[in-house]
Predict the 3D structure of the following.
Amino acid sequence: MVNIKKSVLSSVLKKFLMAITGFVLASFLLIHMLGNLQTFEGGPHAINAYAHTLQTLPWEVLWGFRLTLLACFVVHFLTAYMLVVENNRSRPQQYAVKKSLSSSLAARTMIYSGTVVIAFAVLHILHFTVLNLNPDFKILEWVATGGIYEGKTLHDVYAMLIMGFSNPWVALGYVFAMIVIAFHLSHGVSSMFQSVGLRNEAWRYRLNAIAVAYCVVIAAGFSLNPLAVLVSKYTDCEILPVKCVLKQIEAQKAAGAGKIFVDYGFLSGKAAKCAAAKPEAKK
């Protein structure tokens, strides 16, 4: 009896930890998505300034946030795997089959969708944060023409996103990952309320609907950038200035530029459309 009680308490604690860390991660996704959507504010100014502000936060704040997020990520997924192992060991096969018939597909595949989320998170950080998967990202720079950073040279995140998502495999893989993440969240967000005792039968369907709506917003919001880049590159519908930005980048790379500066003057009519900026010589 004592062992059973300890097992139940242990399971409840793990689910509570998953709920809390899941809430932190789900909230971060919303904030991150809103930040990414600044690419649609008419040019590089908003997202480049936003990215630079984040990167230049006091190290205590920046690394405190990163380590907290990492801890939540690790605890969330380790706890999930531990619960799966415990459930498989303690549940009779007949009961498992019976329960699988009444649970949703998202619930039954959480461990698999979660594994995809882990793989995507690692690749995403290597690609767009550490900049290890495409060395050209590191030489994309932009001279701020307004705001608090006017005259300063910042990393050109705007051009980096356009360049990264101009590869159809990267863009479509990103969209696929967003769909899997939304699928994972569709069950996780709803069950999160149950784990902390905030979901009852009266609110079950309402919270499920809220969870689904949230997941659709997250998936759609993150998918807008890669889809906009693909549409702009392969059609005449120019949502983002993809063709012009890529043309300038390729011209400066061919000229052996040590740093690449895209001239965005064409966006405000201050420069001829798609005129390549003078490349900076290698140092």
